[in-house]
Specification:
The protein is an alpha/beta fold and 395 residues long. The chain has 14 helices and 12 strands. Helix 1 (4-25) runs antiparallel to helix 2, helix 11 (287-300) crosses helix 12 (315-328) and helix 12 runs parallel beside helix 14 (359-372). The chain binds flavin mononucleotide (FMN). Flavin mononucleotide is lined by residues 159-162, 165-166, 188-190, 206, 241, 244-245, 309, 338, 342-345, 384-386, 391.
Length: 395
């Protein structure tokens, strides 16, 4: 049997000959060459090239595979995906976010499109005696006895997302939202940028393993720089990032080619080098040292609430931290729990898909562990998850 490539070569000779023959009978058929000749040229380009085997084996026709692949996401989104099936965010919720953001009509006739009998369906139970909400702006006090500047936080806040992972416009929009809504905006590990400060929304400053914004020239923690930034009025709390659900234990790298003068100045890193976030911290290496670092940051910041964020991996390690809390009597003011399913700006696919405990299991474990060592009532647990209206944290 002949291969497609052989068929094409035969076609490339026969088709022009047939068209020229037809011209003797009906001269306008010469225009068919305008279609056939480009096909032949493209087909021979495919035969000669060595990069794509599909194009080499199926000259010209193979190109359709790449064309369809290029619009696969759009076909999936507009024609295949149902209103409830898209991930990570279904169209049902995406549309709702757009409608509300634009002040458009967001109500709907008829009933739910959810299958309420499917396993795993979740709902909220109402009361037969509903009340008018009187406290429209509930606040939760963050900061125990050791905090001189406790923070009255909203139950819903914006999770860590760095300037660099997000554009300056996105950071400014989030911060303006935080200002208007009276909630807090976590900087992410990329440090405090002028865009976080422009609209005056409350800030939770996140300190990652790169200590961006508070590091010396070797990448180690610098207390003076930390003190300077953390004492700004707008900085309400400090979060030490131990790990993140999408890439626990991975660290990160911003290649030198992508490093701008502005980001270098914000992060306190030199131009011309890759910016590396190591997998672990250099300021501490044991649970006791972690808690001592919590205390150092609390003192340097003038007594602001300090907590840490982690994705649960080895459970004995978290229990080790609980044990160290009892030993040192130093408690974090909050613990932020991220699930292995959590989002990120960029992470290796294997880590995103398969490393780190999912949020539900992790939160139950953290809650139980803190109850077990008798400190749950002194530590707030935050969880990172999508709330569609807010990508936020829930107390
Ligand atoms: C674009 C982007 C950037 C992020 N940057 C950080 C970061 O700098 N530090 C961090 O702790 N988490 C970071 N996260 C993770 C979020 O804070 C949060 O844990 C995660 O988005 C929760 O997962 P979900 O949104 O899929 O529910 C980032 C997430 C996204 C989507």
């Amino acid at each position: 049997m002949m291969t497609m490539r052989q068929n094409f070569i035969i076609f490339s000779f026969l088709a022009p000959l047939i068209i020229l023959g037809l011209c003797y009978i009906w001269s306008p058929s010469i225009w068919a060459l305008a279609v056939v000749l480009p096909i032949i040229v493209l087909g021979y380009i495919d035969v000669i090239q060595k990069r794509h085997s599909v194009r080499r084996l199926y000259p010209f026709l193979g190109r359709f595979r790449y064309m369809f692949e290029a619009v696969r996401a759009e076909i999936q989104q507009y024609f295949v995906e149902s209103d409830t099936s898209g991930t990570p965010i279904a169209r049902e919720f995406r549309s709702l976010v757009y409608q509300r953001a634009k002040g458009a009509r967001d109500t709907r006739p008829f009933g739910t499109i959810f299958d309420v009998n499917r396993p795993g369906y979740e709902w909220v139970n109402h009361s037969l005696a509903p009340k008018h909400a009187t406290n429209l702006h509930p606040r939760i006090k963050f900061g125990g006895d050791d905090c001189l500047q406790p923070y009255m936080a909203s139950p819903l806040n914006i999770s860590a997302m760095s300037y660099g992972a997000l554009s300056k416009n996105a950071i400014m929009a989030l911060n303006k939202g935080a200002k208007i809504g009276g909630f807090s905006h976590n900087t992410g590990e990329g440090s405090l940028s002028p865009y976080h400060l422009k609209h005056g929304g409350d800030i939770v400053w996140q300190i990652g393993t790169g200590y961006f914004g508070c590091r010396d020239s070797d990448g180690n923690f610098n207390g003076d720089l930390f003190e300077e930034n953390s004492r700004r009025d707008v900085v309400k709390m400090i979060e030490i990032k131990l790990s993140q659900g999408a890439k626990p234990g991975h660290g990160g790298i911003l290649p030198a080619a992508k490093l701008t003068e502005e980001i270098a100045a914000i992060r306190h890193v030199p131009m011309g080098h890759d910016v590396v976030s190591p997998p672990s911290h250099s300021a501490f290496s044991s649970p006791v040292e972690l808690l001592e670092f919590v205390k150092v940051l609390r003192d340097l910041s003038g007594g602001k609430p300090v907590g840490f964020k982690l994705c649960i991996g080895r459970r004995d390690e978290f229990l080790g931290i609980c044990k160290a809390m009892l030993e040192t009597k130093i408690l974090p003011d909050f613990i932020t729990v991220d699930g292995g399913e959590g989002g990120t700006g960029a992470a290796p696919t294997e880590m995103t898909n398969s490393v780190g405990s999912p949020l539900r299991d992790a939160l139950i474990f953290v809650n139980n562990a803190l109850i077990g060592v008798g400190v749950r009532d002194k530590i707030h647990c935050l969880k990172c998850f999508q709330l569609f209206i807010f990508c936020g944290q829930w107390h």
